[in-house]
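Q: Convert this sequence to structure tokens.
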Amino acid sequence: MRRTTVHRTSLAAATLLLLAGCGSQSGDTDQGSGKVSAPPPSSGPATGPGASGSPGGCAPRTSELTAADNRGTVCVTVGGQLRLTLDGTRQRPWKAVTVSGDGLRATNGGIVLQPGDATAAYDAVAPGTVTLTSSRPLCAEPATPGGVSCKGIQEWQVTVRVR
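A:
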């Protein structure tokens, strides 16, 4: 029987190659540049309790959400309004925003002029907690047959507390 030994150097080299291949691309997708990255967790002004500086930690009458607010929480008072815009591209379009929970009612979000964008507007009508979600492809489809592609999905989610 033959004994097989894995060398530490070979194992370390293989690990480095795997790590170098995962997440090594950076920058936003730029009209076919092939560069992608998921946005970092948000620490934007609309997230966190009391972040708006208004009493009770709720946002002003109208709050604006973007992709930078991903994984955040925003508080809106009843009677307030919430608007969101997710800037996408034709190659990496955002899906329509879905709503789960009670407290928001969809209202006229205006006209969308850019293909790939997802926009929405909601009126805060009753106390409750709502989750807004959307997603888009992490990579654009290959421009040529046999080109490199990926099956990754960029997800966006914000929790809205209506008070």
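The beta strands are 62-65, 72-76, 81-86, 98-101, 104-107, 118-124, 128-137, 153-162.
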